[in-house]
Amino acid sequence: MTRWLSSIWQMPDLRSRVLFTLGMLAVFRLGVHIPAPGVDRLALAEWVKSGSNTMFGLYDMFSGGALQQFSVFVLGVTPYITASILVQILTVVVPSLERLSKEGQQGRNTITQYTRYATIVIALVQATVMATALESMKTGAGHDIVINPGYQFRAITAITMTAGSCFVMWLGEQISERGIGNGSSLIITAGIMSRFPSGIRSVYDKVSLGELSLLQCVLLVAMMLVVIGLIVWIERAQVRIPIQYAKRVSGRRVYAGNNHLPLKINTTGVIPPIFASSVLAFPATAAQLFPYPAVQAFASAMSPGAWLYDYFYIALIVFFSYFYTALMFNPVDVADNLKKSQAYIPGIRPGKQTAEHIDALLNKLTGAGALYLAGVCILPTLLIAEYGIPFAFGGTSLLIVVGVSLDTVAQVEAQLLTRHYDGLQGPSGGGVLKGRRQLLIGAAGQAT
Fold it and tell me: Which residues, including other chains, have CB under 8 Å from residue 303's CB and lie 6 or more apart?
């Protein structure tokens, strides 16, 4: 690993990309501590901690504690991600956007611009709703969160939060363009990882006070290691569908080739758990906004650790896994592209049968991926609810951090390989990430 890091440092272009990424993340973390006016932050922090399972708790987790600070970056990159997913869905549904997405770089730039406009609208709506909700919030001791409620507070908050969200969106785009990795994902990961030190401190305090035994703490660490190992294994696993190209005659030579179509077990990433968590956070949010007995009872039944919450959580993860896969992957288009390239799957006729074969295999993989996501997310949630472990150690948090880290490492290795740099190899010719490196080299060889 040390030799691998030194290899990155010895390449000026890659080194500048890594340093630029770290610098942009540092700017984001600095902005988290810039407060917006009009709120008693001590009262807000107390209220957020008491409602960590609400929508506000999710905002606080993804923004790295920005809500407790009432920072200008409270919304973070969430509106941009929501807008991106919405535009992706509309691209599949709306024919004009679908045609635009197939017009090359110019079409993609236009869709990116639409995504930015949608981000501004979504951020403005979310900021206005948040400001209005905060005006009616009180702490357990009856303290008001907003110092001077009214239209002026709502307007200032909406403008400030929207501007902060647009700036975070710009940071993410700059990281994606001039740095390493996906900017939006890295910003979310940085926010989650910033909560780990306070989470470790909270676990230490519980052990010191006797609320958590040393054995339970060891089991927690072991559980986290098992979950991380499972995530790494599944995220790197894929099913390869063999593809054979038709023979082509050129003069006296006959050309033919073999390749494969890779399908990941988890094709949807972390989208289903995030969507499911967002939907299930609404009852707890409604309970704080509307203190009626019926709403309170429903929110209690839908709180983490309750059997109804667990069943709905699993069901929503499975639903969003199939829904998002259906939107993002079209077996008919894949079959048509194979047919145009004079390629076919051995034993399967081109065209309709190929699409049906890929669709059937994709459904099985999506089911397995959905069960994997549900297991990773629900088991840590049960332990958190049982022993009061901080939310930062939840399955969704670990899934995001590990998944983004794997993608970033893969991009770094791709940068090294495209520059024909063999610094990954150790003294014996094997690198610290030999398996992934061989996979990349094999894919590059097949592409050529």
Answer: 53, 283, 284, 309
Q: Which two tokens stand for residue 411?
A: 């991009």
Number of residues assigned to the chain = 448
Residue 405 contacts residue 232 (beta carbons within 8 Å)? no
Alpha carbons 377 and 398: distance in angstroms, whole number:
9
Under 8 Å between Cβ of 394 and 377: yes
What is the H or E stretch that residue 250 is in? strand 238-250
Contact predicate 335/355, CB 8 Å: yes
pLDDT digits (tens, 9 = 90+) for 96-122: 888 888 787 888 888 889 999 999 998
For residues 444 and 425, what is the distance between their CA atoms, to the nearest angstrom?
18
Residue type at 292 in one-letter notation:
Y
CA 52 to chain centre: 19
Alpha helices in 194-213 (DSSP H): 196-209
Helix axes 2-9, 395-418, angle to 10 degrees: 60
Residue 114 neighbours by CB under 8 Å, 6+ apart: 87, 97
Helices and strands counted in the chain (H then E): 19, 3
DSSP 320-381: HHHHHHHHH--HHHHHHHHHHTTEE-TTS-TTHHHHHHHHHHHHHHHHHHHHHHHHHHHHHH
* Angle between the N-to-C axes of helices 151-178 and 12-32, in degrees from 0 to 180, rounded to the nearest 10: 170
> For residues 430 and 11, what is the distance between their CA atoms, to the nearest angstrom?
20
Tokens of 37: 């006016």
List, in order, residues 6 or more apart from 186 with CB less than 8 Å away. 21, 25, 172, 175, 404, 408
Question: What is the model's pTM?
Answer: 0.76
Q: Cα 76 to chain center, whole Å?
A: 13
Residues 71/36, Cβ–Cβ less than 8 Å: yes
CA Rg value for the chain: 24
Beta bridge partners of 363: none
What domains, with CATH codes, occur in the chain? 1-194 (1.10.3370.10), 196-448 (1.10.3370.10)
Nearest Cα to Cα of residue 398 among 413, 379, 412, 371: 379
**DSSP state at residue 386:** H
Q: Which amino acid is at 77?
A: V
pLDDT digits (tens, 9 = 90+) for 327-363: 778 888 888 888 887 888 888 888 888 888 888 999 9
Contacts of 214 (CB under 8 A, 6+ apart): 207
